[in-house]
Amino acid sequence: MSGRRMRAGWPWAAAGLVVAAVLALRLPAHGRGGSSGSIATAAAQRGEFLVLVRARGSLQAQRSVPIIAPHIHNLTIVWLAPPGSHLRPGDPVVRFDSSPAEQDLGEKLSALQQAQATLAQARAQAQILAQQDQLDRATDENNVEVAKLNVVKQSILGAIAGQEAQIDLQTAQEALRVENAKINLDEKSSQAKIASAQREVAKAQFDVNLDRDYLAHMVLRTPIAGVVTYMMNRSQGWMNAKPFKVGDAVWPRATIAEVPDLDTLEMEGNLEEVDRGRVHAGQAVRVHVDALPEATFRGRLAAISPLAEADMDGGFPPKEAFKAYGQMTRVDPRLRPGMNGTLDIVVQRLPDAISIPSQALFTRQGRPVVFVQQGGQFRPVSVRVLARNPDAVAVSGIAEGARVALADPTQAKGAAR
Hints:
The protein is α+β, with helices and mostly antiparallel strands and 417 residues long. The protein has helices spanning 2-26, 99-157, 159-216, 412-416, and strands at 41-43, 45-61, 64-68, 75-80, 86-87, 92-96, 219-221, 226-227, 229-230, 232-233, 242-243, 249-250, 255-260, 265-272, 284-289, 292-304, 309-311, 319-328, 340-357, 362-364, 367-374, 377-382, 384-388, 392-396, 403-405. The protein starts with a helix and ends with a helix.
């Protein structure tokens, strides 16, 4: 009975020995180095090493066109281009409700037609009156000539008949003078009526042109290519401010949207005061955008602000920082204003250097070391730091291709991870 129990326990004992052996192999080694089983590594690389000054910031457009409402009251938005959509020059951005202006234009056109009809009637009446006056003048002039002949004739017949003919002549001449005065008065009266009708036509035409101009401003278009960004509508107070939307009432000259020119995008970064003396305009830059981590955009440092400004995004109290503007050689169409990223300014180049990730450099007894992988162990190697940037370190003392630990293998917790 006891023999069968002993034979039945042998498989469990053997399994326990195997597990113990595996655990022993996974335990970290101490002393000169550590096990490489759970430590991430990276290869030392040879090539050009860039010494960088890094500034965090966001993309900003150096040129942006505002879309401003016309100086017209009681405007209501009925259509907006989709936010962030890419627009070409002349594309519509905002449409307002044009029905009141269209109705008003119809009334003004009717008034214009009435004024034009009145002017035409005044001109026709003036022409008829002028023709009648000319006919009356011709009659009076004829009567004067007849009276003159009678004077000559009657003066031969006798004194009394001659005096009567002379009276008739004076009467005809007076009638002609009256007719001339009437013609002059009729001309002035006709000119006044025509001038008044012309003023009414001009006023009605002005009103029509004004309404047509209003209708032309019922659609706001972008003069440049870019993406549309809508401004905040603060008509309900700062706490309730929201971007303009369809249905909003718009006050005259309100800035409804902006269209930034994507070709003028720059990375605006906050440069720390300690780094200001190391950089200058014209240096090469590398722009990295958080939304496109796989892309690197090359360019140059366009400008640096002459004075430090308070960085309100860095906590309280705000730190002082200089604004650095990185201009990209090529602007990707996926980029948009406001995207966050980094501006890496190249302040020095080492043409042939061995570089490792920054997290692979450690300090032992005040001296820089790296842990080089050899077989299943890591060996600490003293190195000399030649240059640094935020991501990598240029060193001497190790060979190209050497694999270095990215965590301290002598630390038990680091090895366990």
